[in-house]
Amino acid sequence: MLIAGEPGVGKTTLAAEAARRAHAAGALVLYGRSEQTLTGPYQPFAEALAHHVHDASIDVLAGLGDEAAELARLAPAVRHRLPALPEPKAREHGDRYRLFGAIARLLAASGDRLVVLVLEDLHWADAPTLLLLRHLLATSERLRLVVLAT
After folding, report:
1. 146 - beta bridge partners?
2. Please, what is the angle between helix 127-138 and helix 43-55, to 10°?
3. CA-to-CA distance for 25 and 12, rounded, in angstroms?
4. Coil, strand or helix: which one is 30?
5. Backbone dihedral region for residue 121 (phi beyond 0: left; psi -120 to 50: alpha; all else: beta)
6. 2 CB-contact burial (10 Å; exposed 0-12 / middle 13-18 / buried 19+)
7. Which of 16, 67, 72, 119 has its CA 20 to 30 A from that of 92?
8. Strands ordered across the beta sheet of 115-120
9. Please, what is the end-to-end C-alpha distance for the chain in angstroms?
10. 34 CB neighbour count, 10 Å cutoff
């Protein structure tokens, strides 16, 4: 779902209210925003996943296996939660695909719980962020995912 409009029209307020209601109904709500001045690739996903990784069970994180090390590149809290995690493989051509797969599997681990991913200011998103979003929307993983973007 995309909420578009002029600055100050209430896009963020509408997205926040939708997220609040989803959370009250039991959904897992993840939030991230793009900045006009780029701070790093995948910024909104790094923000959203940092909170999720902090709250996810150790079993869910450990269940990612080797992919947890890939996920730790984007969400360093994984390494804090799994101190024995091996270092990720040396950077190579398939890194992006493995990272995207790890994120999809982490979100799929929510089971039947709806995941609401709020992405603010998507118009400022960098190309890697948009590629990751496209991957999540097309993944074969069983996701109960709603993306709410402004």
Report:
1. 116
2. 50
3. 20
4. strand
5. left
6. exposed
7. 119
8. 28-33, 115-120, 145-149
9. 9
10. 22
Q: Which residue has the tokens 């910024």?
A: 43
Identify the CA nearest to 144 among candidates 58, 44, 25, 63.
25
CA torsion angle 61 96 94 78 (round to 10):
-20
Helices (H), 63-126: 67-74, 77-81, 95-108
- 3-state DSSP assignment of residue 27: coil
pLDDT the model gives residue 92: 63
Enter the DSSP assignment of 87: P
User: What pLDDT was estimated at residue 65?
Assistant: 84
Tokens of 59: 């079993």
For residue 99, give the amino acid letter.
L
Quote the CA–CA distance of 4 and 146 in Å, as a whole number.
17
